[in-house]
Design brief:
174 residues; six-stranded mixed beta sheet; globular
């Protein structure tokens, strides 16, 4: 088996939705309840096995605050896949997905992407119905919609695995 092929994957979404926590837990660093807002860009690595062999996802995490928005086109350049994250307990983070999608499409085109609703452990505080998010994902060309919890780790690997399979398949011309 050859070395893992590395692909840049970007995390898109508003500040405070849990992008850094998702990346951190996925990369094996664990959940930090005192996680600070990301300033600028942070990187994480996740190795996965796909049907097309070993894949290394280099996950780029951009601070979601408005003041970092100007970095988005630079941040997105060269991305092979994207994970769009919103917080199921904050409706505006769902509404802002469209802005993130617009800048992504205009910068890197129609790359494979998944939609992730984070904070599934806070079901009692949910304001974005699962059916809304599923419909949005279908309408806007996402590979799939997933609900995860960075706090408990539930469901975190699935969206990245789906993305890795899609990217590796694109590479192969599949």
């Amino acid at each position: 088996m050859g070395p893992a092929r590395a692909f840049k994957v970007v995390l898109c979404g508003d500040g405070g939705v849990g992008k850094t926590s998702i990346a951190s837990v996925l990369a094996g660093a664990g959940f930090n309840p005192l996680q600070r807002l990301t300033v600028g860009v942070a990187h994480y690595v996740k190795d996965l096995q796909t049907g097309d062999g070993a894949v290394r996802l280099v996950i780029w995490d951009l601070g979601g605050e408005e003041r970092f928005r100007f970095l988005a086109p630079v941040f997105l350049r060269g991305a092979r896949g994207a994970v769009f994250v919103f917080d199921i307990t904050r409706e505006e983070t769902f509404e802002h997905l469209e802005d993130w999608l617009d800048v992504t499409l205009s910068t890197v085109g129609d790359i494979p992407r998944v939609l992730v609703g984070n904070k599934a452990d806070l079901e009692e505080l949910r304001v974005v119905p699962r059916s809304y998010a599923e419909l949005y994902a279908k309408r806007r060309g996402f590979l799939a919609y997933y609900e995860v919890s960075a706090r408990t780790g539930a469901g975190l690997e699935e969206p990245f695995r789906k993305l890795a399979e899609a990217i590796a398949g694109c590479e192969r011309g599949g």
